[in-house]
Design a protein that fits this description.
There is one protein chain. With 462 residues, the chain is of the alpha/beta class. 27% of the residues lie in helices and 19% in strands. Helix 5 packs parallel to helix 10 and helix 10 crosses helix 13.
Length: 462
Amino acid sequence: MRRVRPRSTTSAVAAAGATALTAAALIAAPLGGAATAAPAAGHAPAVKPVPAVAGHRLIHGVSSPLTIAQCQATWGINCYSPLQYRQAYDLDPLYRAGVTGKGRTIVIVDSFGSPTIQHDLDVYSAQWGIKSSKVQVVKWGDVPPFDPANPDHTGWAGESTLDVEMAHAVAPDAHIVLVETGVAETEGVTGLPEMMDAEKYLIDHGVGDVITQSFGATENTFPGFGKGDFSSIQKLRYAFQDAARRGVTVLASSGDGGATDAMADGETDYPYPVNSWPSADPLVTSIGGTQLHLDDAGDRTAPDSVYNDYGAGGGGQSHVFPRPSYQAGVRNVVGARRGTPDISMAAAVDGGAWVYSSYDPTATGWDVYGGTSEASPLFSGIVALADQLGGHRVGDIHQALYALAKGSPKFSGIVDVEDGTDNTYDGVTGYTAVKGYDMATGVGTLDAARFVPALALTAWGR
């Protein structure tokens, strides 16, 4: 499979083919109608969006989801439903107790969005017997009319669909706000000012308890990086600083390039370890990727591995940010730098998630998606559950997460990934999943029935 940039944090297998999609952008607006427009303030001149999807899709959408055995026989991969995910992450005990994300809001940020997002979520939910929910779409700035013949638009629509359906799969009663922007994020600062303006607007207006970001730009591609001047990144952190003050949890996908990531051309990976922003920001919880090994019931047939098939879970040391205080206990791993990821969830394409979409009339149906831009919205649902159970926002969860990782898994719900697999990718040696924290999966993954109560008890935003 050809890796596709800019911004590749999602991979999709559509029948026999594999397509890498990009991830997101940001926006904002007050809660209200289903498609509310927010004023854009202080935006940079519009930049022509770079296509989010390039690559290939050999077969259009599948008419209905298949079993694991059928996926293996047809495409050589495992494919999972949200019901299998629920079993794998031990979510059902929470649902039986009424912990479903009710009363909490997940904010998803993606360029251009999808014109069929509500219909697609309804079809997705009905397929699995899950109650659907209303998606509030808000727009930031000049969002162009959706063009199904524009691969940039359809690429972002695929990301939007994945994000919404994965968040809903974990937190079925959480309110979802899908924010759309008209400038696609690529490498360097392109698109990021619009995104950060939008996030800050949402935060300031009390919209959202958790924000999930399936986008990122390699630190090295920001202006001034080569001269040791990191001001271009530092000046973009205002939304995250605002979130920390207001107790909003901010998540970001760790990337799909293992220990490396894209150069400024969006096509070539650096031949040495790099990291990406915002995943590497100390105010952002970096969500890495694992590979699940499940049977038809959703029970594990083997321990989780590092995601490393059509991409690899991003991780490594930041070259911009020093080690934050909450990583002092893992200094022997991260050294003097901020290390990513913090925690991981499902992201492998071999073991990916069924997703339904109809934004492209030539490819309506079901696809199997993977990538760390699957993992981040999955984890946003976990945060929404903890917010509901605790009766408060858990806010910046870093201190709680690393404290819980030191304790008993029976209490913390943190499940170490230590099977010896790694995130080596595109010729750059990565990191191995070993006992304790590592830069392949962070502290590991989770058992939600234990992790959600522990997080609600330990973390406190407002």
